[in-house]
Amino acid sequence: MEYDAVVTDSATRQIADSIREAIVSGRLKVDERLPTEEELAKRFKVSRPTIREALKRLAAQNLIRSQRGPSGGRFVNRPSQEQLVRSIANATRLMTSIGEFDFDSITEARRQLGLVCCQLASERRTDADLDAMRAELEVQANSTIDDQDFCASDVRFHHILAQATQNPVLLFVMAAVAETLQPISNMVVYKFRDRQHLLAQHQRLFEAIRDGKPGVARKVFAEQMDYLATVWGRAQEWRQHRERASDQKKAG
Predict the structure, then answer these.
(1) What is the residue extent of each domain of the chain?
(2) Confidence (pTM)
(3) Across the chain, how many H-helices and E-strands are there?
(4) Which CATH architecture has domain 82-251?
(5) CA 47, CA 28: separation in Å to the nearest integer?
(6) Strands 73-76 and 64-67
(7) In whole angstroms, what is the distance from residue 206 CA to residue 198 CA?
């Protein structure tokens, strides 16, 4: 492949971006060996240390890997789904923390995606999927676990729901949603929600999917989204009241 020369300013970033684009576009294939540092330095017309720093950036993003030995070098990596989900999850978490994603948008997206998952999971679930969901219900029924463990089980339960669709695209998207947005909303509202109420909803959802009743599954899922939205509203009211009280105390 051909590389364009870059200006010296921000050369490291430009080189990393150029090679990343070649990987994403498919011009550089998975497991393909990259040119050596010396070859890349000549093509980009920069020093080898600059090339080395650019390659470090790509390695940090799991886009390339190093291999030692006579046949070694740097190769285009094949990232796992877990790595890709984590990358999207981190970006989504950032967008949420800076206020680009609000709870209403989060709930709407999760509701629509979840309804699709309920439909397909009811039609395609396997015995292994049902066993995994049943195991999470047992975890959630344990009154001795703390809220953090309950939230983690809640995330896993909905991940299994997406997995039961047997659709890898839906699983990928829902995994990113579950790993970022669901824990955020869970830990905000945990003081105001009823764990037994959520467990009962999960049990009904499990039974609908087990019995192949997509309409019932969708209805239960929608009920849970409505319940969480109500709880979120209570949590926000409590937070605002506490902030007002704190401001009044400081002013007075």
Answers:
(1) 11-76, 82-251
(2) 0.68
(3) 10, 2
(4) Up-down Bundle (1.20)
(5) 22
(6) antiparallel
(7) 12
CATH code, 11-76: 1.10.10.10
Spell out the SS3 assignment of 129-189: HHHHHHHHHHHHCCCCCCHHHHHHHHHHHHHHHHHCCCCHHHHHHHHHHHHHHHHHHHHHH
Spatial separation of the C-alpha atoms in residues 141 and 247, rounded to whole Å: 40
Sign of torsion over alpha carbons 77, 81, 86, 89: positive
3-state secondary structure of 207: helix
Report residue 72's pLDDT band, with 50, 70 and 90 as the boundaries: confident
Instruction: Look up residue 185 and give its two tokens.
Output: 């909303």
Q: For residue 100, what are its two tokens?
A: 């680009």
Q: Judge whether 16 and 40 are in contact, CB under 8 Å.
A: no
Instruction: Write b or e for each residue in 161-195: b if 16 or more Cβ atoms lie within 10 A of its Cβ, otherwise e.
Output: bbbbbebeebbebbbbbbbbbbbbbbebbbeebee
Q: What 3-state DSSP class applies to 1?
A: coil
Which has the closest alpha carbon to 45: 2, 6, 1? 6
Instruction: Work out whether the CA dihedral 216, 217, 220, 221 comes out positive or negative.
Output: negative
Question: Token pair of 226, please?
Answer: 């409505």
Q: Rounded to an integer, what distance in angstroms lies between the CA atom of residue 163 and that of residue 174?
A: 9
User: How many Å apart are CA 119 and CA 144, to the nearest integer?
Assistant: 33
CA distance 79 to 61: 9
pLDDT tens for 153-164 read: 988 999 999 999
* Per-residue model confidence as pLDDT tens digits over 193-243: 788 999 999 999 999 999 999 999 999 999 998 988 888 777 777 777 777
Phi, psi at 195, each rounded to 5°: -60, -40
